[in-house]
Write a sequence for this structure.
């Protein structure tokens, strides 16, 4: 009976085989592996999208109120430049201050609404991550079980 001998190459004090190491199965990059690797990025992007959607109305409203404020200042300066009475100056100032307080009140209400919207989005993102984490863990367990089965089959074939 002929005995096969492996050819070795000496590198330093170690011997390295010239033949490639046998592998049971090369890793398969099916959808589950891709999903396992990509789900954190997907979850992060979904969270960012939800935060931006929740922030958009508040930001748009804030910019609109700033525009109204700038127009009010310009209008107030025009009125002040044309008036000649101190009582009229006080009236113009009072009107400008009332408009400013109204916009400030709107800003505070919008801030409260935005905080509620962001908290809802944070809860939704947490639910999504918890659900997908469970799904990913089950996919990983299934892949590990398939890998164990394949390894056992290869071991039986080798015997």
């Amino acid at each position: 009976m002929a005995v096969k001998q492996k050819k070795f190459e000496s590198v330093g004090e170690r011997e390295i085989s010239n033949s490639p190491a046998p592998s049971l199965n090369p890793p398969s990059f099916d959808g589950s592996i891709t999903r396992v690797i990509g789900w954190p990025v997907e979850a992060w992007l979904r969270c960012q999208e939800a935060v931006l959607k929740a922030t958009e109305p508040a930001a748009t409203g804030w910019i609109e109120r700033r525009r109204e404020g700038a127009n009010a200042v310009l209008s107030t300066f025009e009125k002040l430049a044309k008036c000649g009475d101190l009582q009229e100056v006080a009236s113009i100032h009072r009107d400008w201050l009332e408009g400013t307080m109204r916009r400030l009140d709107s800003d505070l209400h919008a801030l409260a609404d935005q905080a509620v919207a962001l908290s809802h989005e944070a809860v939704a993102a947490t639910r999504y991550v918890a659900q997908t984490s469970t799904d990913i863990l089950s996919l990983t367990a299934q892949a590990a079980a398939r890998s164990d089965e394949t390894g056992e089959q290869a071991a039986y074939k080798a015997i």
Remarks:
- The first helix runs from residue 31 to 82.
- Residues 37-140 form one domain.
- The two ends are 19 Å apart (CA to CA).
- Residues 69 and 77 are 12 Å apart (CA to CA).
